[in-house]
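Methods — Computational structure assignment.
A single polypeptide chain was analysed. Its primary sequence is given first, followed by the predicted tertiary structure written as structure tokens.
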Amino acid sequence: MTYEGIETEDTYLIGGGFSIYASGSLNSAKDRATHQWIANAPDYTASLGAIYNNDGLYASLIGQWIGDRYGDVGQTQYLQPFFTLDGAVSYDLMHINDQLKDVTLTVQVNNLTNVTKIMNLAGYTVQDGTPLYWTVPGRSVFVTLSAKL
């Protein structure tokens, strides 16, 4: 296997608690003998987002692209690129009441756009070798209340 590529990531503080975040990679993952792409390895990835963190409030909205890839050896199963968008809001409750020091409430929504495209090859059926695939999980919402003891 030969893995080559370039990756970069940066967060830039704009001011007033606002930042922008970006990352990206260009990838090549190929079998040395056949020169074919390794199953599930994307040819690129990219993320772009905005972050706010000030006075006990944290919020983020980050999108991620996963590029072209093949889901099977032999490059027979092309998997389309996909984009997901995640958001989160968190608040330190100490700003409401001093008794709530180190208590944080967080709401996180993953896959806001509810994309459910094929993500990866999961394996094959035993009976006839039919490929099985994982899909991107649909939208999910998490609410967390955390406290330091």
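Note: The two ends are 47 Å apart (CA to CA).
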